[in-house]
Structure formats: C-alpha cells, structure tokens
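Assemble and predict.
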Amino acid sequence: NAGVTQTPKFQVLKTGQSMTLQCAQDMNHNSMYWYRQDPGMGLRLIYYSASEGTTDKGEVPNGYNVSRLNKREFSLRLESAAPSQTSVYFCASTGIYYGYTFGSGTRLTVV
Amino acid sequence: AQTVTQSQPEMSVQEAETVTLSCTYDTSESDYYLFWYKQPPSRQMILVIRQEAYKQQNATENRFSVNFQKAAKSFSLKISDSQLGDAAMYFCAYRASFANSGYALNFGKGTSLLVTP
C-alpha cells in the first residue's frame, strides 16, 4: 500500500543510548518532515527536508540529527537520548498537490 | 513565524448534536492553507477538511464544515450530527503558500472531543 512507513513502532531506550528512526515514502514526494507529539503540545516540527539533498531545522531540533538518504527515505537520529525526548514521533511527506501523508508514529520512551 | 491557537483543550457533544471547534492563527501572509486533522486513539492522522485562503467559500465535507473568517484570522470546524466515531483529538494546522519551512504544517495544540451517547 502506498504511504509513509515508519519503524520501529515502539522503542524503549536508556538515557545516553542512541537510535535511528526510519521513514520511507513511496509516493515520490519531494518534501518530508519529522514531528514530535507531546501531551498538550500538538505536533512540533523537528526537522524537514524540502527536497532530496537538503535538510533544515524546525521548531525543536536540539538533540536530533537527520539524513535525507534519497528521495524516499528520511531518518531521524538521537545521538544521546534524554528523558525529555520521550514522545511520539511522526514522519510525514507531501508532494505538489498539498496532500500530506503521515506515518503511523513511533512511541519512544527514554528511561 | 505563524502561530496556531486552539483555545479549547476539551469539548463534549451529545450524539446527533452539533459542535464547533475553534481555531485562530496569526500570519502576515495573504495566501495560505488551513487544515483540520483528526487523530483517533490509533494515532493515525486523518485529514478532515482543507481551506485555501484565496477562496471565499467555506469548505464542506459531508458533516464537517468550516467557518473561515480571513480578516479575523479564524478557522472553526463545525461537526453536525455528531457520531461516536467522531471522538478524537482534532488539530488545526496552517501552511504557507510559499516554500517557507518546506511547506511544513504548523499545528495548534489540539482539542479533545468527547462524544456521549
């Protein structure tokens, strides 16, 4: 099925551990995004990639890095996880017709 | 930067009744797009309705309609004939028409809608 695939769906990390959240879309979208969702805060933009080969910081980039590996894939890396990074993470993409497709989310807990 | 404000953290409606969710936004642009997304407990983000700022006519999708007041920068969502399946978190979102932030959506904090039988 066409869409945005995020892995993993759940993850528990210890403080200081690193991990990479994977995101892939098969809709030939140019733009991809990483958001985090915290209770009462809505979805906040971490990083975005307007096109293959470019990445930029969003509202809350501290503690994260991203890689736009190719047009399909956009990964989010936590180098040294902190409890403040406990959240639900969403990857999304969009093409030229203003439709956005979201992944199913990753629930990350840092203990 | 544009801000999106949803002033109602929680709302409740009885089945078959009508409810209106509020959203205001702040922007200096004249052309932009506004969205309402529904997020049920499954966490899936579902597009409910979209409004282009250059269109004066309010968008409608079946039981869902918006009241778009451009001068007041207000974008409320009306749900008619509410159903149990409408219970969810609802997010208002803004997108600039130009390539600011790579066309990223800017979300409000959400309104949790409870539907009672």
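Chain B touches chain A at residues 4, 6, 9, 33, 35, 43-45, 47, 50, 91, 95, 99, 101-110 (CB under 8 Å).
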